[in-house]
């Protein structure tokens, strides 16, 4: 007898008990709000769907058999693989379908939740994944798209995207997700609560507590510190406590953003930069919510001075609460809002060309725009999408190399900038901005429909090298043994700059990995790409060792922006290993070259071991680990 399926409980528990009509609003429904029972408004999660009659062991075994069969089929005597069938060396085709090399039983089922469409030019068009509940595109530069060039990996990984327990998404679950995360939640996590200015001021902590949180922000490693002029903010802060009505709502939003960031750092200690979801304190969530409310109340649709900084601080708080790449969609959307508000206010035009903008405001706008550009190119690249800020539409000068104490809001003109080799709080941002501009051009080319010409690649390579050569000596990466007495923040800055340089090299020369043949340009480009990938993974090993010795905060390189760099490097090495292994039966000298095969294998083994540590386990690293293990099993 067929068992009846239990109906999912949609109403909150309180409404179900009281047999009331529930509108399923979050965080509290209308009935609970009317009865002042917000704290008891809870929703029961949908029961897990039954998995197909196939155990995890069977799936893994099937994958292993598939890998072996595919590897053997590459070496079998077939018109495609037999060298004697034609005189030219066989090369992997970029426009083969995902099902190539599979019989009908091994091809992805039509009932699978995800379908993958690969265009003829994989590098240009990227990877499109479409399901009943979501459409997701990543460009050809994304680490997942690189896998499409490895046929057996592509076949093994292009299966239904399951949740943590293998539960696939359903229309019902997508409806629940839409109800849980309404559109307005981007800037209003509690749409049912609409505080006034008086409510915002009452929500502030006591003066001693606020002083502590503000001081903590200006002494932190937050990248947004340079966007707030310390002496000016301190003066305005003192005036505010004397007369709370003296400051604008935009300024109040900045204050809430500052104290929420510091409170969030206290939640999980100074050794980390983000906390697992659900582990932020009630105090942090309150300040974060008040920051959003102040932004909305200030009417950001008619932006005034301070609103861009407020949105940036709020966005940083959202970013710090995210754990995985998929969570960054909300951050990316908020960043888009920040960029468009900044464009509306003319931040993309240098203030020095406009008499109505003071020298002080011009400098602070440059700092803000520089940070926005860095965030845009880096986060968009991680998302596998083109950047939102066009370099051709901006003429903003780089910020000056000055301490905040070097100028005031009345300074006109600004004092001359200090030498580049003299470190200031702006030195890191200035240096990173130069490299980010080269990286932005490279990333833009990686999304181009028509690939860049060889002359364009060499021109970008030269520009990147010039930006790398311009790194001040104090910010150049050095061994950990030579950094023992240096502040952890300075060591992190050095690693970040080097990671950006190596990632840029990797991305610029990646296209050549799928090209057949050789030649001066191909050999140069391939050597650069592989060398950059190895350097990235060497940095991962060094930083992991430094974190074990408490020399650096572990949370820095667990952040998905940095993990993405290491994923990219490991996929590049996996792709190169795949290329060389396919050449082995025909050419016994295929392993020779500028980069040793054993060195690549060793780096992948080390990377795999690092990713198996509990603190690194995420959906992205585990998917990459599967690919790395697959490649290692073939060497």
Automatic annotation (TrEMBL):
Residues 73-120, 158-177, 401-426 are annotated as: Disordered. It is found in: Nucleus. It comes from the Eukaryota. The keyword Transferase does not apply. Residues 87-120 have a biased composition (Polar residues). GO terms for molecular function: DNA binding; DNA-binding transcription factor activity, RNA polymerase II-specific; zinc ion binding. Its main location: nucleus. Transmembrane segments: none annotated. One of its GO terms (biological process) is DNA-templated transcription. InterPro entries: Sec_Metabolite_Reg, XnlR_reg_dom, Zn2-C6_fun-type_DNA-bd_sf, Zn2Cys6_DnaBD. Residues 11-43 form the Zn(2)-C6 fungal-type domain. Keywords: Metal-binding, Nucleus. The keyword Metal-binding applies. GO terms for cellular component: nucleus. Residues 73-86 have a biased composition (Low complexity). This is Zn(2)-C6 fungal-type domain-containing protein.
């Amino acid at each position: 007898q067929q068992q009846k399926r239990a109906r999912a409980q949609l109403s909150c528990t309180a409404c179900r008990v009281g047999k009331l009509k529930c509108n399923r609003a979050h965080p509290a429904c209308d009935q609970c709000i009317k009865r002042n029972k917000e704290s008891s408004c809870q929703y029961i999660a949908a029961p897990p769907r039954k998995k197909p009659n196939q155990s995890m062991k069977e799936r893994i075994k099937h994958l292993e058999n598939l890998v072996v069969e595919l590897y053997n089929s590459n070496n079998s005597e077939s018109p495609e693989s037999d060298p004697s069938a034609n005189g030219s060396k066989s090369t992997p085709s970029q426009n083969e379908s995902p099902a190539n090399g599979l019989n009908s039983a091994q091809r992805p089922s039509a009932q699978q939740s995800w379908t993958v469409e690969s265009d003829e030019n994989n590098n240009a068009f990227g990877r499109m994944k479409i399901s009943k509940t979501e459409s997701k595109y990543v460009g050809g530069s994304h680490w997942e798209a690189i896998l499409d060039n490895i046929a057996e990996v592509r076949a093994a990984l292009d299966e239904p995207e399951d949740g943590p327990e293998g539960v696939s998404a359903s229309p019902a679950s997508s409806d629940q997700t839409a109800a849980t995360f309404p559109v307005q939640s981007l800037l209003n996590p509690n749409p049912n609560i609409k505080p006034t200015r008086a409510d915002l001021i009452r929500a502030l902590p006591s003066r001693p507590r606020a002083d502590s949180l503000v001081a903590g922000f200006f002494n932190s490693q937050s990248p947004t510190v340079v966007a707030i002029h310390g002496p000016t903010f301190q003066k305005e802060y003192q005036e505010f406590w004397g007369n709370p009505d003296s400051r604008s709502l935009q300024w109040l939003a900045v204050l809430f953003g500052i104290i929420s960031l510091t409170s969030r750092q206290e939640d999980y200690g100074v050794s980390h930069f983000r906390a697992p979801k659900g582990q932020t304190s009630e105090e942090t969530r309150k300040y974060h919510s008040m920051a959003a409310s102040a932004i909305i109340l200030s009417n950001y649709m008619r932006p005034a001075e301070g609103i861009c900084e407020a949105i940036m601080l709020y966005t940083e708080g959202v970013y710090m609460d995210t754990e995985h790449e998929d969570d960054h969609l909300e951050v990316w959307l908020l960043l888009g809002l920040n960029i468009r508000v900044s464009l509306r206010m003319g931040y993309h035009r240098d203030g020095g060309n406009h008499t109505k903008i003071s020298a002080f405001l011009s400098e602070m706008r440059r700092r803000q725009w520089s940070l926005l550009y860095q965030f845009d190119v880096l986060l968009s690249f991680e998302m596998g999408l083109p950047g939102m800020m066009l370099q051709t539409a901006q003429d903003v000068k780089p910020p000056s190399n000055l301490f905040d104490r070097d100028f005031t809001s009345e300074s006109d003109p600004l004092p001359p900038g200090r030498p580049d080799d003299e470190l200031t709080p702006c030195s890191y941002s200035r240096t990173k901005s130069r490299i980010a501009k080269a990286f932005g051009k490279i990333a833009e080319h990686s999304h181009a429909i028509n690939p860049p010409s060889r002359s364009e690649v060499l021109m970008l390579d030269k520009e990147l090298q010039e930006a790398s050569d311009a790194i001040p000596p104090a910010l150049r990466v050095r061994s950990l043994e030579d950094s023992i007495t240096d502040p952890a923040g300075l060591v992190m800055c050095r690693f970040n700059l080097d990671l950006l340089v190596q990632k840029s090299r990797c991305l610029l020369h990646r296209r050549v990995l799928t090209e057949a043949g050789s030649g001066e340009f191909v050999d140069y480009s391939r050597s650069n790409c592989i060398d950059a990938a190895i350097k990235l993974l060497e940095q991962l090993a060094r930083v992991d060792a430094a974190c074990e010795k408490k020399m650096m905060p572990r949370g820095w390189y667990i952040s998905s922006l940095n993990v993405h760099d290491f994923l990219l490097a490991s996929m590049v090495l996996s792709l190169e290993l795949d290329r060389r292994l396919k050449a082995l039966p025909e050419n016994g000298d295929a392993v020779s070259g500028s980069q040793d095969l054993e060195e690549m294998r060793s780096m992948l083994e080390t990377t795999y071991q690092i990713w198996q540590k509990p603190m690194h386990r995420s959906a992205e690293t585990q998917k990459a680990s599967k690919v790395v293990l697959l490649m290692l099993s073939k060497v």
